[in-house]
Amino acid sequence: MKIAIFSTQPFDRDYLLQANLAYGYEVVFFETRLHLGTVSLAKGFDVVSCFVTDQVGKEVIEKLVDLGVRLLALRSAGFNHVDLNAAHALGLRVARVPAYSPYAVAEFAVGLLLALNRKIHLAFNRVREHNFLLTGLLGFDLHGKTVGIIGTGKIGSVFCHIMRGFGVELIGYDLVENPSCLEDGLHYTTLADLYARADIISLHCPLIPPTHHLINAAALASMKPGVMLINTGRGGLIDTLALIAALKTGQIGAVGLDVYEKEEGLFFYDLSTSSIQDDVFTRLQTFPHVLITAHQAFFTKEALTHIAQTTLANCQALEVGQWQETLI
Ligand code: NAD
Fold first, then answer.
1. How far, in Å, is the centroid of ligand 1 from the Cα of 202?
2. Same domain, 92 and 178
3. pTM for the full model?
């Protein structure tokens, strides 16, 4: 079986090669992203594996099918970057890695929250410059505050469990209630009530049409003034222009973002000697209480091991005709 790995990073290579020792597939790595201009590279491959930065729309899928590709093996849990309807209509199998490590993402979300609250990102720079003043670094006790979780699935429930240890009040919104969150004392409520009551809101729902720009101007206006917003879900959950406007007025007090709605072509690249063309992103960076990381919440040894192993197990499922729940 021949597998083309698009959007390869050095870490992908190491973990996939290690996992492939058990399979012995012919694996070829491409650093480029998968898009219409590069899809022809997939010629002669049975499987194409892609990452969150690859845009796999209808035209790319048509081309993949024309080229004889039989499986699109996503190295991610999210699948908002793939036109699943087109894939299903054209008979292209799609597999993902549904649960590689909810701990990786949930722990990172807590990290963003703690860093923002206690201004650790500002303090780090200050101390490096031998400025030992505390002015401007005031935080608040988490104990007794209200934390709102939107999306209480695998990652949201781990986040909930960790936050329980801080002695916060946990409220959540989801289409389905998760018994593990209920056990941790989370109370499900409406979105409107969550917005009105939460001191901190963390997003853990998928990016699908109903959740696109879930956090828009109206939602931001209905939140508690000075609320902290954490997004390790997907960039498109937040209307970034509305967020900037709410940061300017102080309605939103602090924001931790591991994802950004226009992150393709930005995140995962070294652009330190380039001019960033995205003025919205650079404006976002000017706020002292905005902490942005480049989609690294998943980035732990355990998660990379699971991603590599599951991706190759999905390929094997295609080979032996045994479909697993990871195939969507
Ligand atoms: P999951 O499927 O286990 O949980 C998602 C939850 O969201 C489910 O409980 C679902 O019912 C709920 N949901 C669906 N629609 C909703 C809506 N309209 N409003 C509120 N809740 C809704 O998924 P997961 O493994 O917990 O992952 C959640 C998301 O995290 C993924 O979709 C992905 O986009 C993102 N993610 C980010 C990273 C990262 O590195 N930053 C890594 C992995 C996953």
1. 11
2. no
3. 0.92
User: Which SS3 state, helix, strand or coil, does residue 186 take?
Assistant: coil
Residue 236 Cβ inside 6 Å of ligand 1? The answer reads no
Q: Which two tokens stand for residue 189?
A: 């409520």
Residue 54 structural domain: 2-100+300-319
Q: How many domains does the chain have?
A: 2
CA distance 293 to 205: 19
Residue 326 pLDDT level (bands cut at 50, 70, 90): low
Question: Helix, strand or coil for residue 129?
Answer: coil
Q: Cα(194)–Cα(211) distance, rounded to whole angstroms?
A: 16
Which residues are the active-site residues? Answer: 234, 263, 295
Q: Does residue 233 have its Cβ closer than 6 Å to ligand 1?
A: yes
Q: What DSSP designation does 103 have?
A: H
For ligand 1, atom 8, name the residue with the nearest CA.
153
* Residue 324, pLDDT score: 60
pLDDT value at 325 more than 80: no
**Residue 89's CATH number:** 3.40.50.720
Mean pLDDT of the chain: 95
Regarding the beta carbon of 52 and ligand 1, being less than 6 Å apart is answered no
Alpha-carbon distances, residue 187 vs 171, 175, 179, 203, 270 (angstroms): 5, 13, 11, 16, 42
